[in-house]
Write a structure and sequence with these properties.
Layout (H helix, E strand, L loop, with lengths): L7 H4 L13 H13 L4 E4 L2 E5 L10 H7 L11 H15 L3 E6 L6 H15 L4 H21 E2 L7 E2 L2 E8 L5 E9 L4 H4 L9 H9 L2 H6 L10 H4 L11 H14 L5 H15 L3 E3 L5 E3 L2 H9 L5 H9 E6 L2 E6 L2 H31 L3 H5 L5 E7 L11 H31 L13 H8 L5 H10 L6 H12 L5 E3 L5 H5 L5 E6 L2 E6 L3 H6 L4 H8 L4 H6 L2 H5 L7 H17 L2 E8 L12 H10 L2 H10 L3 E4 H8 L14 H12 L6 E3 L3 E4 L2 H53 L2 H10 L10 H17 L18 H22 L2 H17 L6 H5 L23 E8 L6 E8 L3 E6 L2 E7 L5 E5 L5 E5 L11 E4 L3 H12 L5 E4 L2 E7 L2 E9 L4 E4 L5 E5 L6
Parallel strand pairs: 2-16, 3-12, 3-16, 24-27, 29-31
Antiparallel strand pairs: 1-2, 4-5, 6-7, 6-12, 8-9, 10-11, 13-14, 14-15, 17-19, 18-19, 20-21, 20-26, 21-22, 22-23, 24-25, 25-26, 28-29, 30-31
Helix pairs in contact: 2-27, 4-5, 5-6, 6-11, 6-15, 8-11, 12-13, 12-15, 17-18, 17-26, 19-20, 29-30, 32-33, 35-37
Bound molecules: adenosine-5'-diphosphate and magnesium ion.
The site of adenosine-5'-diphosphate has 19 residues, from α5 and β5.
Amino acid sequence: MESALTARDRVGVQDFVLLENYNSEAAFIENLRRRFKENLIYTYIGSVLVSVNPYKELEIYSKQQMERYRGVSFYEISPHIYAVSDNTYRAMRTERKDQCILISGESGAGKTEASKKILLYYAVTCPMNDHMAALGDRLLQSNPVLEAFGNAKTLRNDNSSRFGKYMDVQFDFRGAPVGGHILNYLLEKSRVVHQNHGERNFHIFYQLLEGGDEDLLNTLDLERNPQNYQYLVKGNCPRVSSISDKNNWKVVMKALPVIGFTEEEKLLNIIAGVLHLGNTQFGEGEEGETYITTETQITKLVKVRTVSLVLLNVQICTNIHKKALLRMISPLNFEQAISARDALAKAVYGRTFTWLVEKINQSLALKDEIYHSNKGSSVIGLLDIYGFEVLQHNSFEQFCINYCNEKLQQLFIELTLRSEQEEYETEGIAWETVQYFDNKIICDLIEEKHKGIISILDEECLRPGETCDVSFLEKLEDTLGGHPHFVTHKLANGKTRRVMSREEFRLLHYAGEVNYNVNGFLDKNNDLLNRNLKEVMCQSDNQILSRCFRREEVMDQKRPEMAATQFKNSLMKLMEILMSKEPSYVRCIKPNDAKQPGRFDEVLVRHQVKYLGLMENLRVRRAGFAYRRRFEAFLQRYKPLCPETWPNWHGRLVDGVSTLVNHLGYKPEEYKLGRSKIFIRFPKTLFTTEDALEAKKPEIALTLQTSWRGYRERAKYQRIRRTAFCMYTIPLVVYGSVFIRFIKGFIYRHEEYCPENEYFLDHVRYSFLKNLRKNLPKSVLDKSWPTPPPLVVEASEHLRTLHMRNMVVKYCRRVQPEWKKQMVQKVVASEIFKDQKDNYPQSVGRLFLDSRLGTCSYINVRPCAPQYGASVTKYDRRGFKPRPRQLLLTNTFAVLVDRTKIKQRIDYTALRGISVSSLSDGMFVLHMPSEDSKQKADAVLQCDHVIELVTKLAMMAGKIDYVNISPGSIRFTVARGKEGIIDFVRGSEMKVTKGKRGHLLVTVPRTNTT
Ligand SMILES: Nc1ncnc2c1ncn2[C@@H]1O[C@H](COP(=O)(O)OP(=O)(O)O)[C@@H](O)[C@H]1O
Ligand SMILES: [Mg+2]
């Protein structure tokens, strides 16, 4: 991303988190619009990809483009669906965690196209052998087949998926695709029998009529004109300019064998059967009984071997009740007969579709041998599911679709918030809560047991007595009246009432309000296919149908689950699947309803931005910090801006970033350093840095140019040298004397350098040097060195010393000032204390700090500021009463402080010596000249960090040689001419007491913590 930040004014920001005004929806939409106008359809919100449908082919999906995104970090390159694909793939490989990409958006926003692009990316870029390539092919080819049977032209999308799809692609440990599996959700079966104006039935019907050859149509008893079929005329839109049914038919026919299909004939029989069924008409007899008026249709149905003639004729027009032992046959009325026919058509098509998906799954399934050798595999799931739908008339299907979107939104909120929170936790940064709308209340309203809409609907379907859609609505009103997200005409206030019909209920979804008409809810939920019709289907000659309609189902007295409950349960399973994976999001937006390129309808986009929850997503992302990047990436990009980090930083990454931002003058409130990332709060900070980098670029270019010239000259020189070497060696080879000279040289090898052995000895030297060059130690701690032949022992020793010095110099150059200071102090401590004082070894591994006073600040000491401070205990020279003090060291003197009061000042020039014991105690004495009346006498002190303190003091005072380490006792001056003594003895615990003869007795345990 950074690479194009400079172009941000022209095309907005590539990541919404960098929008200065991130709370403004207008700014958000303006950014989308500006980018869309430049054909930049992708923009990030952090790691979420927002995609706007361009409605035209863009040149951004080529193989070269795929290569550009391969293995490149998300942020290094402009946003793209390939970046998400690649990132997900790499996350799966490196973290060994299953991933999923959730693609959402309303119908026509580009979800299916996005999922196809992701699949194609994997098919092209993943490592593959022949078997895998065949699988990749099957994965890709399953698409046109599924689309033919599951997609249709709607008002919103000429190729609208009328089912939800979740696809798993399984990869082996090498990252090659080895298997796939598809789950399908709620096919919109009602489309088989009815289409709204301007819409079509599923593509396959038109493809068959348009693309099937004459023989095929004759066999199926079909005519080419779709207008002749009742199930194809409702939308009055048999042909669409953007769809080539003929070509698509060819594609599907080609794809079927690839996905292991051998039963096309049976499948097409079913499609034809549905069309014939739709043309079956009924008449009403004198007594209200129904009969089929189109006998020929039934004959056709039989011809295409869908059903048995007699049975169907009887069953479709009659209803058989079981009442006790009596089998009573009652005729269906006209409407009932039509609805039985339609129910049959829907069931046949719906079940065939499910069978088709299973068939595809068999062809994508991991073969046994791969399955068993594939324990280390991982999965990427792709969810392409219907987006939130608000039509003029919304029915049961829209209710289910929108419920699904509520669930996905909930998952989105949970997962994005959760992952955001987790990132803050792992990075050790305090989390700030964000206010967001939690749509759980709406999910509960729909799905809660006993009280939710689905439960009420089920109950109403099962309840004995007269039930109808209106009684369902009343039940809803009784149970849910007063719920803040539920309204009906009766419950509404005047204003809302005016825009609602009496048969509607309104849900206030997170994405907006939708009125659902209850007509058909009960039937669709019941999804009942007359048991007798099921029986007919069980007897079908068509093996696909007999597999779809099982005899056991007819025998089973248990009522199958209602449609909405089935859907709810399958959604629950889907949520479980998604929760177990690491999600990535693609949020698709449709720029206009006219499917036109270049048109950006702001109202439409604003609505989608709102219900996709993008503003909330952005707020969550921006709650803490606008920008975050791993230390290495940040340092790599901005290191030219700081002399200490340019051209290379050799210390710890966090120190490098810290040095860099300090140099750039970042204020503490502007950023935070986590464990592996820097978090920058405001976009402005980043932009300023980016501008500075831009300004610096000419200078960097100049440096690079100079280095390049140097490199070129060096390369030229090497070339010339090599040529000269060849000129020297070739004649030897040519004259064939090499071997003889070599042997001769070996014989004379112990002689002085002479013509006989010169070639051999040169060779020995040369070989050693060559070997040495390859095996030089890489670090100062590496003590290895190739054994030299006797001839070059001396030279080898010189080289060894030189190399070591060289490494040391290089090492020292890399050492940062802070670290250097630390090391110098440690070296001095070692010079003073090593093998002299018992607690020195414990101090070696601990860093020397600049203060031991915790968060306390130093008091003002004029004229110099303290460089070091530590808490000490001072013992009165007379009586040895202990008193807490602070010892502060400046560059020229030390002071002993009691809270804010300076009690004693010790000028370094006057310091006569520093005494410590050889044991592991913290006592030390600062000796002052007794004749100097300005200075007080010696100070007897104790400190827990005695090694550190004395080292620093000795260094600052320039009195390293003045430190005395006394094994048994220390003598000190109490006053002029009067001496005190501290005795040190070993004991079980640390104690400072008054000893004999007025001595101070310090008992020191063998081990001590300094
Ligand atoms: N990235 C894209 N590039 C070009 N055209 C696209 C792109 N995404 C979508 N479209 C166009 O929009 C139409 C609808 O997209 P589709 O993926 O079927 O929508 P959805 O699945 O969201 O309903 C496609 O048929 C195609 O014409
Ligand atoms: Mg789709």
